Amino acid sequence: MWLADNIIMVSAIFLGLCVIVGLVAVGVTGARLYFQFRRTNAQVSEPMERLTLSLETTERLQAQIPLKQEALDASLAELQVQARALGVIASYAGWAVAILRSPLRYLGR
After folding, report:
1. What angle do CA 90, 92, 98 make, to 5 degrees?
2. Are the beta carbons of 76 and 70 closer than 8 angstroms?
């Protein structure tokens, strides 16, 4: 019989066909994955750009925090000086009112 006489050649042909079918399956799967990757990459690229822009904006604003903090500290120091001055003025005003009312105390009113 021919098959029994040529079993090695038939095995080699069968093995070659299996390898070719496997390579075709791998190629088709690879092509599908490549095109799916490109679609997904196109969908993700715009939100990623917005996220990057948002991150840059956040970093820029974060860099401005120390500058604003210094301005706030300076304003707070100035306010404290003004509050102390106002406290001194208020104490002198209290003494002045007490001095101006002292004759009324001596006169009985």
Report:
1. 105
2. no
Q: Which domain holds residue 42?
A: 2-107
Provide Rg for the chain, Cα atoms.
45
Tokens encoding 91: 């104490």
pTM for this entry = 0.45
- CA distance readout (Å), 35 to 25, 39, 44, 46, 63: 16, 6, 14, 18, 41
Domain tally, the chain: 1
Q: How far apart are CA 39 and CA 33, in angstroms?
A: 10
Predicted confidence (pLDDT) per residue in 23-59, tens digit: 999 999 999 999 999 998 888 888 888 988 999 999 9
